[in-house]
Amino acid sequence: MKVAIVSGSVYGSAEEVARHAQQLIKNAGHDVLFNPRATLADLQAFAPDAFLAVTSTTGLGELPDNILPLYSQIRDVLPAAWRGLPGGVIGLGDASYGDTFCGGGEQLRELFMEVGIREVQEMLRLDASETVTPESDAEPWLAAFIEKLGA
Ligand SMILES: Cc1cc2nc3c(=O)[nH]c(=O)nc-3n(C[C@H](O)[C@H](O)[C@H](O)COP(=O)(O)O)c2cc1C
Predict the structure, then answer these.
(1) Domain containing residue 18
(2) pLDDT for 18-71, tens place per residue?
(3) Which of 73, 75, 77, 21 is nearest to 50 (CA)?
(4) Distance between CA atoms of 32 and 25, rounded to whole angstroms?
(5) What is the model's pLDDT at position 150?
(6) Which of 30, 90, 91, 131 could cross-link 54 (Cys pair, CB 3.0–4.6 Å)?
(7) Among 41, 48, 54, 49, which residue's Cα sits nearest to residue 88?
(8) Ligand 1: centre distance to CA 10 (Å)
(9) Does position 118 have pLDDT exceeding 70, yes or no?
(10) 151 has pLDDT over 80
């Protein structure tokens, strides 16, 4: 399968998790596109069969700046070819922000819903107030995600 990873990050933690996910998904035998600066055209040219979004949260529940252009492009176009594809979201946040905990991840879940990408498992929420090892913490979730993608 061809798996596209999109990521939003301010300080690099989410990007590290995305990079680790790229390795694990590749090891499982899939093709992966991961470029933190990917445009809609890059994603469409890759023609993904599945999506993984990994994003942190900034401001008050906002998406990081680096993913905003792609977010807007996808929202404007809602590519019909992606409707029905499997996907999953990993959100990084900090529970001490209360109601906006993992708000960036929630925005990407909503975008997936608008596009018609099916979440194959519940969003993983990684809490920076509880862990300093988000990459390894994501491994069980990623293993289940890879399993759900199938061959
Ligand atoms: C200025 C600022 C605002 C933040 N706002 C939120 C927030 O609203 N909700 C949340 O869950 N986490 C929030 N966080 C926590 C980050 O999302 C968290 O530390 C994350 O691990 C950072 O990942 P990154 O290195 O990929 O940017 C905020 C962090 C900073 C520095």
Answers:
(1) 2-149
(2) 999 999 999 999 999 999 999 999 999 999 999 999 999 999 999 999 999 999
(3) 21
(4) 7
(5) 80
(6) 90
(7) 54
(8) 8
(9) yes
(10) no
Q: What is the mean pLDDT of residues 145-149?
A: 96
Amino acid sitting at position 34? F
Ligand 1: residue of 6, 9, 10 to mutate (most ligand atoms within 8 A of CB) is: 10
Closest by Cα among 116, 141, 148, 114 to 126: 141
Ligand 1 within 6 A of 84 CB?
no
Angle between the 13-27 and 139-149 helix axes, to the nearest 10 degrees? 40
Rounded Cα gap, residues 49 and 132, in angstroms: 32
Pocket test for ligand 1, best of 55, 97, 133 (most atoms within 8 A of CB): 97
Q: How far apart are CA 108 and CA 112, in angstroms?
A: 6
Q: What CATH number should be reported for the domain holding residue 124?
A: 3.40.50.360
Q: Please tell me the total count of domains within the chain.
A: 1
Share of the chain above pLDDT 90, in %: 97
CA-proximal residue: ligand 1, atom 27 (nearest): 10
